[in-house]
Amino acid sequence: NAGVTQTPKFRVLKTGQSMTLLCAQDMNHEYMYWYRQDPGMGLRLIHYSVGEGTTAKGEVPDGYNVSRLKKQNFLLGLESAAPSQTSVYFCASISGRASLAKNIQYFGAGTRLSVL
Amino acid sequence: GQNIDQPTEMTATEGAIVQINCTYQTSGFNGLFWYQQHAGEAPTFLSYNVLDGLEEKGRFSSFLSRSKGYSYLLLKELQMKDSASYLCASLDNYGQNFVFGPGTRLSVLP
To answer: Shortest Cα distance from B15 to chain A (angstroms)?
Structure first.
């Protein structure tokens, strides 16, 4: 049982390049989240999904797009990378179903992205 | 809007007790969470309060006062491995959207 897996773990981009970050979970969780973490600013929500085929904007959605075509996968896309998107990106999921543990977030190991 | 505040850094001695405070102002509320994050790693769940009062889990306890918008995480018998960042997060009224505080970096000294 792998939990939440993020790929890639590291990436360096040039300004204007595009890329997709993949998040996969094998816990049959309903809700999935993408965060970015910058020094001194904690985790900030980019986009989230409450089920297959649904997405919603979080606190800092500009410059990012997401898709949830399959329940287990949540993709984060950068169409034209900018230096301001240099950050550590974390994916997380929660069950969302009625249980004591329904709102506990499980995080992936993170993707460290540098945009030059 | 939602806003969460925590102290940026704290230092404590091995074997001591430390309390990390968190204050929140949210338009809706469905629970307060604490996560631990070691440097270079992912956050991991520590505790969750939805009702007022104290939740105890081994060396870690968490307290919530909804009327005051206040929570704290209490760590007892500190160990060197407790050196980490501690993140406070609230869940909105719809049970969908989490807001995190900036995190408190705790250093445990010998």
So the answer is: 27
Q: pLDDT grade, residue B92 (50/70/90)?
A: confident
Residue B95: pLDDT band by 50, 70, 90 thresholds? confident
Cα–Cα distance measured from residue B81 to residue A65, given in angstroms and rounded to the nearest whole number = 38
CA distance to partner chain B, nearest, from residue A81 (Å)? 23
> What is the pLDDT confidence band of residue B62, given thresholds at 50, 70 and 90?
very high
> B82 burial class (0-12, 13-18, 19+ CB within 10 angstroms)?
buried
DSSP letters, B28-89, are: S-S-EEEEEE-TTS--EEEEEESSSEEEEETTEEEEEETTTTEEEEEE-S--GGG-EEEEEE
Q: Are A75 and A23 in contact (CB under 8 A)?
A: yes
CA atoms of B47 and A105, how far apart (whole Å)? 11
> What does the alpha-carbon distance between residue B24 and residue B72 come to, in Å, rounded to a whole number?
11
Q: Does B11 touch chain A (CB under 8 A)?
A: no
Of A71, A88, A84, nearest to A21 by C-alpha is A88
Q: What is the DSSP letter of A36?
A: E
